[in-house]
Amino acid sequence: MNPSIEAIVPCGDSALLLVLGAKADKATTDKATTDKVARITQVLRTHPFPGWIECVPAYVSIMIHYDPLQVYAQCPPGVTPLTQIRRWIDDALARGEAAQAPVNRQVQIPVCYDQDFAPDLSGLAQAHGISEAEVVARHTGRDYWVAMIGFLPGFAYLGGLDPVLATPRHRQPRLQVPAGSVGIAGEQTGIYSLASPGGWQIIGRTPVAMFSPGEKIPGRLQPGDQVRFYAIDRKTFLTWGEGHR
């Protein structure tokens, strides 16, 4: 088995999980892990095996979905589908060893940190003994990377948060968090792509649509993207409009 993969775990008869070794609770502070997941995902998508359907990258793993009947039809006598898939994956990774890491997109996201859009900004600042302005400065002063997409369609978990801003989720989640809300949970920050219940510490909101189901690529952010937030005022937020999408 390729040394980049720690384990291959069957998930029913039509999916398996590639485990890449790092701990998920450290993934958002480890960009090297994100880059490895992105590179292997790119290689596997470039060299799909018979019966391949899709792969879904996460913090430290990649879920591969496949058609078991097509895989079984390609198995030599005495070879199980799982063994055959292992061989195909090893072959794909061997052919892709020289592949360059994916080029990370640079994405800038406007955020309004006005109190009407930031119900937790004041409390978070007080909890860390800093001003609200310093919270905003620290949040906009970092480059983040998209560690994975999950929870909601288009919801990006971002690594690279300033350790000073690390704050636990609310013990009691809100029943409704507006789409575009920018929050902090533990050592990560993220953007609610859709209105949803949630327990993250909300410190601002972006007027940019993070998930547009009518688009060819509906999610604005993708794993591996590099993200930078910048502050806008309330008037700019309210007049953002379609022309800025």
TrEMBL record:
Tell me which residues make up the Carboxyltransferase domain.
6-221
Keyword Cell division listed? The answer is no
A Pfam family that this protein carries is: CT_C_D
Molecular function GO labels? ATP binding; hydrolase activity
Protein's UniProt keywords contain Nucleotide-binding? yes
Q: Which SUPFAM superfamilies match?
A: Cyclophilin-like, PH0987 N-terminal domain-like
- Please name the InterPro entries in this protein's record: CT_C_D (IPR003833), Cyclophilin-like_dom_sf (IPR029000), PxpB (IPR010016)
Residue ranges of coiled coil: none
Record SMART domains:
AHS1 (SM00796)
The record's keywords, sorted A to Z, are: ATP-binding, Hydrolase, Nucleotide-binding
Q: What is this protein called?
A: Inhibitor of KinA
